[in-house]
Amino acid sequence: MRVIIIGSGAAGLTTASTIRRYNKEMEIVVITKDKHIAYSPCAIPYVICNEIPSFEDIIMHTPEEYKRDRHIDVITESEVLDMDSENNKITYKDKENNEIELTYDYLVLATGGSPFVPPIEGVDLKGVFKLRTIEDGMRIKEYAENSKSVIVAGAGAIGLETAYALKELGLDVVVVEMAPQILPRALDIDMAKIVMKYLEEDVGIKFILEKPLGKIVGDEDGKVNGAVIDGEFYGCDMVIMATGVRPNIELAKKAGCEIGRWAIRVNEKMQTSIPNIYAVGDCVEVVDLITKQITLSPFGTTAVRQGKVAGKNIVGIEAKFNPVLNAMVSKIGDIEMAGTGMSELGAHQNRLEVIVGKARALTRARYYPGGKLIEVKLICDMNKNIVGCQIVGGERVAERVDAVSIGIVKNMTCNELANIEFCYAPPVSMVIDPLALAAENACDKFKKIEKNE
Amino acid sequence: MRVIIIGSGAAGLTTASTIRRYNKEMEIVVITKDKHIAYSPCAIPYVICNEIPSFEDIIMHTPEEYKRDRHIDVITESEVLDMDSENNKITYKDKENNEIELTYDYLVLATGGSPFVPPIEGVDLKGVFKLRTIEDGMRIKEYAENSKSVIVAGAGAIGLETAYALKELGLDVVVVEMAPQILPRALDIDMAKIVMKYLEEDVGIKFILEKPLGKIVGDEDGKVNGAVIDGEFYGCDMVIMATGVRPNIELAKKAGCEIGRWAIRVNEKMQTSIPNIYAVGDCVEVVDLITKQITLSPFGTTAVRQGKVAGKNIVGIEAKFNPVLNAMVSKIGDIEMAGTGMSELGAHQNRLEVIVGKARALTRARYYPGGKLIEVKLICDMNKNIVGCQIVGGERVAERVDAVSIGIVKNMTCNELANIEFCYAPPVSMVIDPLALAAENACDKFKKIEKNE
Q1: Which pLDDT tens digit goes with each residue over B258-268?
Q2: Using the beta-carbon criterion (under 8 Å), do A400 and B401 form an inter-chain contact?
Q3: What ipTM describes this predicted complex?
Q4: I want to staple B59 with a disulfide (CB 3.0 to 4.6 A). Which of A40, A72, B39, B69 is the partner?
């Protein structure tokens, strides 16, 4: 029995390791275009700004280690050319340019996503970068050493983390974003404004919102020396295109797997429309827990959880991947931001009436040194069930969002959250947790509605 | 309408403020023995060791502020002498020793608890202290300035926090505890050992377990100069009796309120057996969520939540106090420890079979600097429902325990917790949260049991 896994990101390698954990016999072959495997793409911005000393630090395993410790063959720098799902066979080109055929019993597509770069003038100039792989990160860091200013296109988490990293290296940084807010997919505008205020005032990043990057301008050597935004020229030495990621679905198409609305369609077992082909990670589409609609979930955590589900099912252990909340967190400088479930904007877009509970409070007793402000936004449907939460603040943000994720999955109401027994000690919390305060605020609003009815 | 509240701790003052929040007319009188009100008793050890600069910092409001801002009369340094619940009347002695009668429409007993000091030889010597009030804290801090060594009797959270504080001030510290472990009510012995190892090896506190403090020995001036433990003499200049707290139920008895197994019996509304007398805080008994048995819940958070419930019911808003998990957290030096729900020991004592899931992991991606080890213990009943959790580690402990508290209240299984979508970014978490790892460990154990059956 042989399983071939295409792709060596978190999804592919977790699938491989999960299969090996439960089955010592199966032959496992991972084929990847990448040179470096098993690194954390989320960590790249932190290496750029030297919070993590080097790129080597974020590479967790080598292909040799996979072979030695887990009997998993990882074939790097190799591209899959052809898929023959009728005969359970693929053709790939290895790093010596040999074309090799390989049959499989199971195939796993973990082909990930590719940065989406809009087709504007100048994107091929020297000094324009995308940020996806560790090699991208290395190139950006090297080029930044001789640069004074950068324009980052896209104010999602990756764009902002990279903007912050380059600002830390001493560059002047302008972020340009088409949406009317930063972090448009993660936070509502009110919460995003808190983050933007910090990045503008405390970090010194400049923002241009509601404008696309028009074109990139180069000098006679073909090097970036500026960009045009809304008709205005901005000088810069570098441009980072953090304008989104698209699922890689070409191989799935070649294999004849059903493609859904956004990406490869899979069932709860992470199985494609072809029973012995599974797909995991950024290349598949998933179900949103709140709206029940199809969505994408391009997160490392999703990739890992999907890899476990696929791996278990391949070895015959039943496992299901649940609909997602798309919980996310980022830390940029001194500010931590996280969100889970539905946003207020998302609710409006889905024509779902919601009540919002808010609280602004400290993370420690107010007399205890070092407490940080955090702001909590809780989104409840009209049955008082919590459907979303966003938190921005100085510390202890991620775990609070995780706590709300548990509440959402278990159909908790704001009344229930207001009555939860949060633990308390002055150095680590307030006697009433900010989550409980936000829940109380939502309860008060429901009471007002009930009174008026 | 007049409500009299006896006691100015968190329970009494929260009741007062809650009543005022919803009712601007009612006369509210708080009578208290204390001189200082509205301070945080949990903060006292942190003032002793100068983590919080002064005792004034932990006093949040003065009686004058209560009068001015909330029209609440706080009568300090006054003792209630007599209760006449037939005629809705109390008699108290004010600080000028006048005996005053006062009638009420509602009475709230927020009489708290008193340190339990075992009747051993020498407890009245100079240099023996209990720790309950801010005045106790001031006396300990002052006496410690001229002391070189201290014996702390009792290794609960207050005892350990005080031991640490005095060690920080430069004293030699010995903690003596009758139980075979420290933190016997909060943690299981395996988790307590991690804390003890840190306090012994990194902080330098000495522990004597499974031994009572035999007697305290004084010099010719009546000052402590040592103590006898298990027949052996230990020299010291101070002794702190952190040997537990007993509910103050004398006034409730005088009023004719029903006393339960441990303390004042109340219903879900915090109402005693006498309908217009409520009781809140350390002087009442509550129901344990897991065992459904009567227990005590001497925590500031419980006091606050009970005060809100009593206050709302007094003004005619229905509110219920739920059974408790007795969630607790403490931070001592660099280590944070927290627990919620049932312990493994508690399960054995209640003859409840449980499965324990454990995990030891970092709080940040392993390549991200500053990550701290945390150890998670998850306790599940044989239906796989999570019934308890304990965590010990360097950071982000309290919120994880809170997340599990939500899970326990909402009947979450270990399988569900293993599949929760924890948010992830390298500076704040691991790609698989330690809680999910512990839940997976429990799931694996259940699978083994199912296989063998």
Answers
A1: 999 999 999 99
A2: no
A3: 0.94
A4: B39
